[in-house]
Amino acid sequence: MRKTLLILPAALLLGGCSSLHKKFHAADVSHDGKLSRAEFSDAVAKIAFTKYDTDKNGKVDLAEWQADEGKDNDKGFALRDLNHTGKVSLPEAQQVARKNGAFGDLFNKVDTNHDECIDVNEVDAYVKAHPKPKR
């Protein structure tokens, strides 16, 4: 996930306004209009997981992992394979992301009022200040 973690943490936040708001509301599982650290982490981990799961079977195997990470980070795969099946599920990926505080730095940057949750206005402000790179 090392390469993907560098690319995807803002994926929840980047995109067109309607797409952005749809992603925000999908991530807001408590339906309180805010993203907690856990909701944010789970949403970004899901985006990263989807990128790795190239065969779309709901599991990431070592070959899929290595296609993105190379063979020098197999330990990272093993750390995410919590039940030692040789495959990483979305719940495993989300559990590891939460435990390790993944995406915490990005959360802190977006949470400008430091109330430990992100609202849609903070997301809009972050996206405005960090426009999506043009290809």
Key traits:
two-stranded antiparallel ribbon; 8 helices; mainly alpha
Task: Outline the structure in words.
By secondary structure, this protein is mainly α. It has one domain (2-129). Helix content is 56%, strand content 7%. It has a two-stranded antiparallel ribbon. The model is unreliable at 1-9 (pLDDT under 50).
Average pLDDT, all residues? 85
- Major sheet characteristics: 2 strands, antiparallel
Estimate percent helicity.
Answer: 55-70%
Q: In one word, what is the shape?
A: elongated
From the helix content, strand content and strand pairing, which structural class follows? mainly alpha
The share of residues in extended strands comes to: 5-15%
How would you spell out the order of helices and strands?
A: HHEHEHHEHHEH
Across the major sheet, the strand order is 1-4
Number of domains: 1
How large, in whole angstroms, is the Cα Rg? 15 Å
Distance between the termini: 23 Å
